[in-house]
Amino acid sequence: MMNMANNAVVEFMSVKDITMNAKSALSGLAFLLMRPFILAAWLTVTSLFFAPFALSQIEVVEAEPAVITDSRYPQTRETTIVSKVLGNSMNDAPPPIALSSDSGNAGLFVQLQDLQAEVRELRGLLEQQSYIIEQLSQKRMDDYLDLDRRIGELTQSALSGAPVKSASASNQPQSNTGGSTSTARSYSTAKSAVPANAGSVSPIVKAAVPPVASSADVAKKAYRAAYQKVKDRQFDQASVSLAAFIKAHPQSHYVPNAYFWLGELFYLESDLPKSKQSFDVLIKQYPKHRKIADAKFKLGKIYHQLGDNKSARSMLESVLNDHPGSTAANPAREYLNNSLR
Amino acid sequence: MGFFKAVAVVSAVMFSQLVAADLVIEVTDWVKDPTKIAIVPFRHEGAAIDQDMAAVVAADLTRSGQFEALPRDAMYSSPSAADEVHYRDWRALGVDYLLIGRSQATNKSVTLEYELFDVHRQKSLIKSRVGNRKGAERAVAHKVSDSVYQRLTGIAGAFSTRMLYVSVKTSPAKNQNTPKQMYQLILADADGARAREILKSSEPILSPSWSPDGKQIAYVSFESSRPAIYRQVIATGEREKLTNFRGLNSAPSWSPDGKRLAMVLSKDGNPELYVMEVATRKLQRITKNSAIDTEPSWMPDGKSLIFTSDRGGRPQIYRVDLNGGATKRITYTGAYNAKASLMADGKSMVMVHRDDSGYHIAWQELATGRLIILTGSSLDESPSLSPNGSMLLYATKYQGRGVLAAVSLDGGVRFRLPSPSSDVREPAWSPN
Q: Which of A227, B90, B269, B375 fits a disulfide with A75 by CB distance 3.0 to 4.6 angstroms?
């Protein structure tokens, strides 16, 4: 008997709730946008509960696309009844919301509905934003690859004749032109060989360049061509050629020289970060090279100009301590005494 | 409770019963430059037949929107064998292809020999023969249309296929009572002809869905005054109630292997997706969410479903993996996307999409999210793809009445199938 009484209350509640739904359907934008959902749901609910009325309502049901039935409300009714009749055999059924004549509970129920609606709205926003982020990162990568490809083509035409064989083309996910090379990528590739800097390398350019055994003659010729541009003071072309050379002949013993000249060229252009990067690679990868002292001196100056006096001092002191007889020792001492006071 | 018990009148009908009015097709948009074909009336011998098979073929090809059939009164001659064909005459008429044939009928069977010619190259493209039992002349003609269409376009024809739809007749109100509705589930040829009723009820019938072998259907019927999912064998009319849970039982969709049905049940709270193994009726719950999850459609591999959910505040299409339940939203264009169904390759889908001008049928590529709106009317719903994937049927409103319409996936061809006496909706194109 208690059950029946409860059900009667539930029926009453359903009428009230449906009216509420209808009201919010008129006022709330979200509900308006879901018009077919709500109307179909509402009508189905009506037809489920009030068979006699349903007969007259079906005509409207048919105007709606489907089958979709809500609703937040009847579910609680179903749940209560299912759990009563079937002993709630489904493990994953949500816990039945107990409805009683207590108006406090009814208020709670309305609040729950509002919360659910808000959660849905937030979820929708979250979905939209993750999608936009996904799109943006994809676009960023596409743009980068496109730029990279174009720089590669430019580099190749600038080299005009110097044989370039890109080993990393096969690692590219995008369809790059066969033997593309690029300043940007060769830099990062060089960087990625330096453990200290590895973290800052973007995943795309991290693709390691497998060593290519190119004939020493070809490498020498390419380096000479690039060095000639330095001597001819064609600095822009020279830096492009040097980068391409490093890319194409990573095993050549001219590579440290190329890094040195690249560092010098970028220093001339006041591109301090790039210059620093080149000298860094040279110092860390080729610590025995004869240009190390000069490179350390330049790097010390760069640190100073970048405002890092501590690093500048240690770099210059390293020139004095490790390479006391080098041509860079005197200028380094002077610099330490005069500029780095 | 239960003062009035609505008496549902239901009858499942053997499929030979022809009680529904045929739909009439009106082609509304053609491709820009349709191929011109002449279909000469077939010469007939033997027992009389009541179908003009050449006219059926001509209507089929015209309806595809890619062909224009030469009117019969423009023809100079009526050849029925290769040696009677004078190419020059047909070329003069501007015809690209020519179809001729001879039919023979006995009391039991009908056969049609036909031949297709390329008028410009003056050569025969197809020479073949089709047979069937007497009375199945339309089926014979559709087979011919299929083979001509395939030969000339490279795409399998879909003229021999069938469709299901729901027809609603409203009888005028008597003695101030509310008007009475009569719902019919209709099976018809893809051209709208040979419409026959396979279920009749005074309560709503919804969501007809084909089994992949085309022999069974599933649908929702309210005949027991609340929705239940039924399965019915088309040839015998034999039917079975699959679900009768409290609350909602809706949107059945047959799995590609034909062994399972995806459906929506609200027995555990609110509408959620379930998959039922048809043989054992074992249920697997797929979604668990306080929002509405509905309208499941299978990925061709049978491993995941796409469905409509308002879990993000607005109805959008999501995809759920059946093993593991990982769910991903796949539509982001517009504030309303629903009732999606996948193309056979699983790479794109069609769905109902709402924009500023109303509800349209749209096509979306899954990998890129690229969306193309295919229909221009504003109350379009229930898209259903043809088995060859080149066209889709949908329900819309035309002159205040529910009609079926079709559009080719390239948007170039459209036709309407208005019903003379009822509202029709929820089309489902057969899989074969």
A: B269
